[in-house]
Design goal:
EC 2.4.1.1; about 850 residues; 34 helices; pyridoxal phosphate binding; Rossmann fold; Pyridoxal_P_attach_site; alpha/beta; 6-stranded parallel beta sheet; binds ligand 26W; globular; 3 domains; 24 strands; 9-stranded mixed beta sheet
Length: about 850
Amino acid sequence: MVFESPPKQDRILEDDAPIRPESGDDDIVAEIKSAILSKIVLAAGKDVKRANIHDWYIAAALTLRDRIVYQWLQSDRAAQRRGDKRVYYLSLEFLIGRLLTDALTNMSLMGPFRTAVEDLGIDFDALRDAEPDAALGNGGLGRLAACFMESMATLAIPARGYGIRYEHGLFRQIVSDGWQEEFPEQWLLSGNPWEFERGDVVFDIQYGGHLDRIEQTDKPSRTLWIPDETIQAVAYDTPIVGWRGHHVNALRLWSARAVDPMRLDTFNNGDHLGAMSEMARAEAISKFLYPSDETPAGRALRLRQEYFFVSASLQDILDRHLHSDGDIRSLPSHAAIQLNDTHPSLAVPELMRLLVDKYQIGWDDAWDITTRTISYTNHTLLPEALETWQVELFERMLPRHLDIIYRINVDHLAAAEKHFGADARSRASVSLIDETGGRRVRMGHLAFVGSHRINGVSAMHSELMRETVFADLNSLYPGRITNKTNGITFRRWLHQCNPELTSLLQDACGAAVLDEPERLRMLEPLSDDRAFQQRFQAVKRANKIALAQTIASQLGIVVDPSALFDVQIKRIHEYKRQLLNAIEAVALYQAILANPEGNWTPRIKIFAGKAAASYRQAKLIIKFINDIGNVINNDPAIRDLLKVVFIPNYNVSAAEIIVPASDLSEQISTAGMEASGTGNMKLALNGAITIGTLDGANIEILEHVGEENIFIFGMKADEVVQRRAMGLDATGIISSSPMLTGVIEAIERGVFSPDDPSRFAPIAHALRFLDHYLVSADFEDYYRAQRAVDMKWHSPEWARSSILNVARMAWFSSDRTIREYAEDIWNIPLT
Ligand code: 26W
């Protein structure tokens, strides 16, 4: 065997190893080749001659995994020995994408592996593309969790991510005749080489049943929960390698299974079919990711999922803590539990249940332990996305947890009464139970009350948390809300996805720029240097040619790489306003038709994103984009000055191709509605200039890049509130804008849907009378800002601004974000 002894550490840890060495030295390449060949035979059980590209991918991944495992065990042992505090990141979503290139980059083994694979006669890029994209998340929140896992490993913070091992991740999107269709995703179909099934880490998860109160003479009464359903959670661990391979953490995902059929009454009564259906019911819990984004799922299965992963994770955390420390009371000094949105809020009552019912700790002590251990990140203030659950459903599924929530609420409302006095409105507004129209448990309030820190994800969002949704809670518990502006991992979103730019940056700022992103500042004096601008633009052009090839081969649309690539890639949602971008395309189309000889800037408008399957208006917007594309792209009168392209099945891997090829980044949400955004950071880091509203982290991007290097337009958050208060009718705005009138009338005439002229009536109607997202209200200013983009595109100022965007993005590294969490929330010292 080739890898019986640990690989030579000096190779992996070399500090100034280049990101992509031209080729590894001969013996390491030979070692890798021979290991890959043995994996094909011994792990896949195949003759090398019969191996297909997928077999090669599995063999390469297993070969790399062997090297990671040594480092992983070492990281764990070292943390254990030092008694380090650990972070537990609880998230229903981890949008990790592919792992091979990530792990290769971070292990500094990209060069040797590429050489080894190609020496074996295999196309490395094809092998890389054979890995399915792990899409265990919907969008921003799930991708943030993945970036954070990588940054925690990079900063050598002992951490573990906890989530669900969904058998089917986010649906595959097919665009058929312009309409989105959803198909199940099958990432596990051909096996997953990264994970380790932990057959010995299994917990019982219980639901339903009833409570018994046991009165005790000299002590408070006790409550016994007698559940009527038990299922099991089995752990699967995936190693997450930090930059330079110094530290490796685990992502632990739970898979649901029925208890041993021999333990099922139905089975023992001879009802084998009944037993099968019980098994299917248990396994349903980890079958699908809920594909909703910003709209509550509202289904019992979702609540079952939430409890399933929370309970398994907490049992695991407490077991581990007791094993290493022996004293359950010291939990807050050894564990920080971070709740990624409200989806894991049940951690609050579950930790209380385990402490009080299982470990017999008094209520007040248990509450102190709980609040000192847990903290909560909020990712959205959209009222429709704030999770609540019907009390009746809760009581049926988790009676003991509801009981605990009521008990927490008693103390909490007593504190509220003291604070707010007779003000019943404030008391009702902070209660864990919403009594307006059917009683519901407020998961955001529950997470807030059970946490010592609550954070928003951009400066503006955290401020709006204090002023709006959590205003009363903030007044009751002042100082708990803090801001942690999001970040992105530069390893994936620069080094790996844009290797050519990375080499140029290494040339310009020194190789250390890979470890110290602040060095990007050294680009500033080069931003005016014509020779440097040309090198920078040559990289961008090469990336655009690659994207153009993908578009041509996938969609049959030919786009000119010298045109401006105007990109909006994200979930499709009305508040993100893909519609504003699309109607601007229509307005521009009409303007070009009216003045074909004008000095127009050739543009390719590129859209990509998925709509929740049940979100009708978002799906109609996808159809609208495709239909206007059909008309515009095929109209010879505009001579290719404008094209509209919708790239189907947007996912992490698609983003890795689109982001480096973008010139203009569309971040145009209605002000006050996008909590942060992280795509805005990825695009700016790769040299795209932002056109955006004063929303979320755009504001901080503006502060960093400077106002001459970004295009800002539109109403501000407070103006949005004022304008909505005046009503949603946009008739006045439309009549004062001939351009907008022209656009809406064309939509209504069926110019873009001649086969069904009324198809887009709901869109025209919203633009005219229900302008909740201020698409009509912001249209003129957006159109103006887009013409300023056109002007700048033709001047050397474009390259300058683009370079300055890259130069000034260091602060948006998720390493910075994680350092702030470690200091202010987790209380973990960093060296
Ligand atoms: C209950 C249904 C549901 C599901 C998901 C409600 C809300 C969500 C998420 C909070 C949606 C989400 O991904 N939010 C995004 O989080 C990113 C990371 O912080 C931010 O950058 C985005 O602005 C925010 O929309």
